[in-house]
Specification:
Shape: globular
Order of helices and strands: EEEHEHEEEEHEHHEHHEEEHHH
Structural class: alpha/beta
Distance between the termini: 46 Å
Largest sheet: 9 strands, mixed
Radius of gyration: 18 Å
Bound molecules: adenosine monophosphate
Strand content: 25-35%
Oligomer: single chain
């Protein structure tokens, strides 16, 4: 089943306590599409500049990602410069240059308009809505965002939230959007805007699912080495949506959502093991399945009698 994603395709400058890289391939849509290509057919909507290298496009097309919705424009690609201290959960944005994204007007190829699963990745919420407007009858729509857009475009962002089924957001941004320090209250605030489901990503502390009246928690996979957390959130979403699209279920239910969250956790855990998309690009289905099993084992415990 096809999964459409809109988001950024970027060159990042990233510094972590373990190293730094200029012109690292990144962007919310790049991470998401590379990740979800392990599960399903992916239709990518994004804009790139004339500096975007063919080898970086091939990385996606070699994995079967459909790039007919990627527009190439004169100018530079989106650029994000960020840093992490020893608290790898917190990315500090040093600079954001929208570049070709500033006047992007996405027009979807006809073949994309029937996409059933849609992920509105981290990008201007006005663009998220323009993309959603062009999809005929989506079965499931999820979105992400970040502080940059909550600060600059909150009104548009709330409009976008009202139109989706699932919001996947990190804990700091959930607090900021809902204006409360409490994550349970933040999830309720977001659900009251419309989405049936809210997923709050908590970096090395895992993720929380709020679905109807149910709450489920997945831990993060305990890794001894984390090199670069960039893209963890986008690949979490890619694993989550990829699993849902692959499973071709007739609808959402708590069992499927729990599995999908764990698949998101699995994919995010691979991403952070190396810089940029390096680890994500070299995965195979067997190691994905093995890590899924490892998380099941990690969280299993027996019932006790009273
Ligand atoms: P994540 O670490 O999963 O939250 O996402 C990291 C990616 O998001 C980086 O590769 C950046 O290029 C991209 N990014 C950073 N800031 C923004 C923004 N304001 N809008 C969209 N994408 C962004």
């Amino acid at each position: 089943m096809s999964l459409l994603v809109v988001g950024t395709m970027a060159y990042d400058s990233v510094k972590t306590p373990f190293g730094e890289r200029e012109k690292a391939l990144g962007g919310s849509a790049t991470y998401f599409s590379l990740c979800s290509s392990y599960f399903t057919d992916v239709n990518l909507v994004a804009v790139i500049g004339d500096d975007f290298e063919d080898k970086d496009i091939s990385l996606l097309t070699d994995k079967g990602v459909d790039i007919s919705g990627v527009e190439k424009k004169d100018g530079k690609s989106f650029h994000w410069k960020g840093e992490y201290g020893f608290d790898l959960n917190e990315a500090v944005t040093i600079d954001t240059h929208l570049n070709v994204l500033a006047d992007f007007n996405p027009v979807l190829p006809a073949s994309y308009r029937k996409s059933e699963y849609v992920f509105l990745g981290n990008i201007d919420p006005a663009l998220q809505q323009k993309v959603l407007d062009q999809i005929e009858n989506p079965k499931l729509v999820a979105m992400d965002t970040m502080n940059f857009w909550i600060d600059s475009s909150k009104e548009d962002l709330v409009k976008a939230v009202k139109r989706v089924d699932i919001v996947i957001i990190n804990e700091g941004e959930a607090r900021m959007l809902a204006d409360t320090p409490n994550l349970v209250k933040a999830a309720r605030y977001i659900r009251e805007l419309g989405p049936s489901t809210v997923i709050i990503k908590r970096g090395e502390y895992g993720a929380l699912l709020f679905y109807k009246e149910e709450i489920f928690a997945s831990p993060a996979y305990p890794l001894e080495e984390v090199f670069d957390p960039t893209g963890a959130g986008d690949t979490f979403a890619g694993g989550f949506m990829g699993h849902l699209a692959k499973t071709k279920s007739s609808g959402m239910d708590a069992t499927l959502l729990r599995q999908a969250i764990v698949m998101g956790t699995v994919m995010a855990s691979f991403t952070v093991e190396k810089f940029s998309v390096d680890r994500l690009a070299e995965l195979d289905r067997k190691e994905i399945a093995e890590r899924f099993k490892a998380i099941k084992k990690l969280t299993h415990f027996e019932h006790i009698e009273d």
